[in-house]
DNA sequence: AATGCGGGGGT
DNA sequence: ACCCCAGCATT
């Protein structure tokens, strides 16, 4: 398996900025960004990030808000918060050097079994497995392994199998398996006709590629109806830093009010908040008065485990005058870009909309 | 062991 | 419009 695979990888690997170095900082950063995120998306973020935070020390010294700003739009923001904490731990505990040790790496925030293996193998060429979803898909097909990959216990089974089959060139082998999973041995329509290891693939021989990997877990998303308030005062709109009790904690956004929740989308259509109920909510949470200018049905936004059905509520605030607090800012629409604003809010803000707000 | 956590791509 | 993807932390 390994010989053909390594030759294929050498010839067909995609170019990525982090593949031009073995610097543990670059490998670590890229691996964190690549969790649940595709290569094409990561490249721009990675380049901008490296340009601003060129080593672990400069990242450790940064403000969390700025790190989040550089992560804006990438999602799973706890990755960014843990990345920042991890950089600080590496500076304070390990003298700014990444530990070349599996157990030590695992203790660091945001680094789990996969990422520890990826850093050790790719940066240090240690013969350690790095099992991600691609590896599990490739191995379960190649060996027709029937263990359930949605069960976290299965990871160790794949790790043993990887150790059995791993050549000395761990650095390239681990990346080759993942590259194969990402480009050839894909979930839906695997390109077996151009796969370098198809001749020995068990699933290929029995035409069972699509029954592997075995995965039982089903995801049931709940639906939430959410009012998103655009408080407008003298050409400025209010944003607040989302607190730890909220989704998207630490990022900025418009005030949100939970109207209704259901397992079924249809149950939400009848749930409408009256103007009076809204004004009561506003007054209970903020000490100013105003009137509702308009309601705009907004795009729905799908998160990992829930769906937001948003309505934008534009409210003209008459009193008090716009005052900033540490966690509440009144900003001109053009200044919104200075804050880390998650996609759920961003995608509902057209230029026309902002222009209209500005005129209020 | 189960749940929380974004956003993008393919069909 | 709908389906799929999937590491780590917390509980």
UniProtKB/TrEMBL annotation:
* Keyword set includes Metal-binding: yes
> Coiled coil where?
none
Keyword vocabulary terms for this entry: 4Fe-4S, DNA damage, DNA repair, Glycosidase, Hydrolase, Iron, Iron-sulfur, Metal-binding
Cofactor info, note text:
Binds 1 [4Fe-4S] cluster.
Enumerate the spans annotated as Nudix hydrolase domain.
221-355
Q: Which cofactor does it need?
A: [4Fe-4S] cluster
- CDD domains given in the database record: ENDO3c, NUDIX_DNA_Glycosylase_C-MutY
Q: What does this protein do?
A: Adenine glycosylase active on G-A mispairs.
- The name on file for this protein is Adenine DNA glycosylase
